[in-house]
C-alpha cells in the first residue's frame, strides 16, 4: 500500500492544469475560469490532497506562527490558558511560540521584541508588567490580543476581566459570613491584576464601614511559596484576623500549608478564599472557595480573536465573567 503524501504535481496532472495554476488557486491569487477551478477542487477531493500550510503561508507573506507571552509557562494558571490557545489554533495552520516574562517588565519587553523579530504573524500577551503604551507600540506593527492590558488599536483587541469587582465579591462573601478582620495576600504590586484585586478588597471593607488596616495586607508574588511566607508574616505580626483572601489560588494553597504547619484549621479557625479556580482548588483539603476565572476560555478566545484580526475582521473587546465559587474552606465566623 502506497502511503506517500499526494503531491501538488499529481493534483495538477489529474486536473489537467499546470502545477503553478494549482498553487495560485490554493493561495487565492489565480484568476481562472470556473471549469479549471472546479477541476482542481475535484482533483483535491478525489486524491485527498493536504496542502502544506507553511508553504501557503509563506506564499502570502506569513510565517504561520503566533507569539504568546506568558509569565510562567510552568504555572498551572498559565498552563491551562496555553492549552486553550493551542486548541483555538487547531485547524488554522498556525502554530504558537511561547515565551515567559517572569513578571518582569524588562524581560517581557525583551521576549516580545524577540518574538516580533522572528517575525510572528500575531501576538497574544497574557497579563504582565509592560506599560500599555509600550504594548500599543508593538500593536502598530503586528496584530495583538491582550489580557490585563487595555490596548486600543484597529489591529488589537483586549479581554475584559473585572478583577476589581470579583475581588469585591470575594471579600463580601467573607463579610457576609460575619468576618470583620480579613487579611489579604496581594500579588506583585506592578501588575494591574494585583492592584485591581487589592482595590476590590478595600472597596468591600469601606462599604461596610470597616477601617482598612494596612498591617493585614502582606505582599506575595502569585507563587505557592509566597503564600506560606505571607501566613508566617501575618501570624508573627500578631494581627488578629478570622479570614484571609489570597489574590490567587497558588498563594491560597501555599497559605493553607502555612496554617497547617501552625496547627490552624481551615475553616474552623480561619476562612480562606482564593482567586482563579485552578483544577487543584477542588482537591484541596478542604476544597477551596475561590473566584472562578474561565482560564481555558481565556486562551481559546484569545486565539480565536487573533484569527479574526488576521482575516481583517473587526473585533470588539471580549468580556469574560468572573464568579465566586463557594466550597468548604469558608464558613460563618464563630463568636
TrEMBL record:
Residues 6-60 form the HTH lacI-type domain. Gene3D superfamilies: 3.40.50.2300, lambda repressor-like DNA-binding domains (1.10.260.40). Pfam families: LacI (PF00356), Peripla_BP_3 (PF13377). InterPro entries: Cro/C1-type_HTH (IPR001387), HTH_LacI (IPR000843), LacI/GalR-like_sensor (IPR046335), Lambda_DNA-bd_dom_sf (IPR010982), Peripla_BP_I (IPR028082). The keyword Nucleotide-binding does not apply. Residues 7-33 form the HTH cro/C1-type domain. Keywords: DNA-binding, Repressor, Transcription, Transcription regulation. Transmembrane segments: none annotated. Signal peptide: none annotated. One of its GO terms (molecular function) is transcription cis-regulatory region binding. PANTHER family: HTH-TYPE TRANSCRIPTIONAL REPRESSOR PURR-RELATED, LACI-RELATED TRANSCRIPTIONAL REPRESSOR. This is Catabolite control protein A. The gene is ccpA_1.
